[in-house]
Amino acid sequence: MVNTVPGFKRLYDLKLTHVQAIELLRCLCQQISTLSESEFEKTGIQKALFDAIEHGIVELIVELIKQYPDIVWREDKSQRGIFLCATLHRQEKIFNLIYRMGAKKNAMATPWDVNHNNILHQAAFLAPLSQLDRVTGAALQMQRELQWYKEVESIVQPKQREMRNLSHDTPRTLFTKEHRGLVEEGEKWMKETATSCTVVAALIATIMFSALFTLPGGFDQYTGLPLFLHRSSFIAYIVSDAVSLFSSTSSMLMFLGMLTSRYREEDFLRSLPMKLIIGLSTLFFSMATMMMTFGVALMIFLKERFDWVSFPIMLLASVPVTLFALLQFPLLVDIFLSTYGPGIFDKPNKRGRFL
């Protein structure tokens, strides 16, 4: 039955191919574990190992470690081990295996390469372009780089944080040098986004503020109270107008905070993304309530004469809100998940250890 549906058949074939590839890999790894040192050198397995690390083929690494545990001590031509290479190439799935090394975890994070770059130095180098392009925008790329650096920093010994390579750079100094251009690009992207959104938020705030003094129906010339004060739709108008005004003002303040930020490296980790999340969320909310205010005002004017007008007005008012959501929500979701999501690194646990 599965084979009769084209979409399911394709998925089934892909899954079957993957399972067969894993079985073939497992058989090959079992054969590798029986090889002598000289035979191992001749097979080219070591080159395949580091090619797999560079391209993030975690299944191969896992099977090799299971069948041949000593392979974790292998090094490439630059004397970088598995986890130094995984850090340099930003392959988080392979790096996460370090938490399954048990007592050997600290030893895995201690070595350095031919240039005396330890694992924290590897995290300080700018990520390969192929890995940077997986993240949207220079600001989020900088955030991801900081997340990598902080994660690696949390597993190394204190003396490694101050260790100098052959160029006399500590990991932090190297990080600053390598990411100077990315910080500038991130600052430019953030400021351009904040400037555009500040203009929109200011326009909405201006419109909503003036709408409070030009109420539908006007005011009673004797009491000074709004003529439609007794209508529930008028209360909805006032509430939506006030909410839109408060939201747009909050959005404007968040974006102004971004424009006046010092743009230190650390700001890209939490501070700036948080401001952008709040700014975009409140801007969307202010736009939605602004269109609601407009729709309610039209209904107040027209409902007594045209009862059918409510639905089409609300339908049309939802169009710009929907367009804004479609354009901005993917970015907002990316920022939120990158900042407050589960992250790309597995938390240390006692299950699934190799050694």
TrEMBL record:
Keywords: Membrane, Transmembrane, Transmembrane helix. The keyword Membrane applies. Signal peptide: none annotated. It holds the Pfam family PGG. The chain crosses the membrane at residues 194-214, 234-256, 276-302, 308-327. One of its GO terms (cellular component) is membrane. The keyword Membrane applies. Residues 187-299 form the PGG domain. PANTHER family: ANKYRIN REPEAT FAMILY PROTEIN, CASKIN. This is PGG domain-containing protein. It comes from Linum tenue.
